[in-house]
Amino acid sequence: MSALPPCPKCSSEFTYEDAGQYICPECGHEWSAQAAGEAQEEGARVWRDASGNILQDGDTVTVIKDLKLKGGGGTVKMGTKVKNIRLVDGDHDIDCKIEGFGQMGLKTEFVRKV
Fold first, then answer.
1. Which fold has domain 1-40?
2. Which of 5, 12, 68, 103 might form a disulfide with 26, Cβ 3.0–4.6 angstroms?
3. How confident is the model at residue 84 (pLDDT cuts 50, 70, 90)?
């Protein structure tokens, strides 16, 4: 897994560094390594899925593994699509409503952006 940040424009994980600049081969966006470091220092929280893609409110994600629900409520199966997520701070990063299960919280490490 690459230690380079994903492209801020298209969220591609295939960025590379050249002469102090980060470059995205997919969309052609270029940005300075210094600007990327400053953006991380600003304290703005960035949520990433299991693949490293940046998540935003309203995105659609897919569950990447079976998740057993506490209290014997069943299991959310791998491949379940979750629409219109809301990102929050706390022990779970995503508030969402899953059809057949209702309102729940998920962690970003168990989802992948669609």
1. N-terminal domain of TfIIb (2.20.25)
2. 12
3. very high
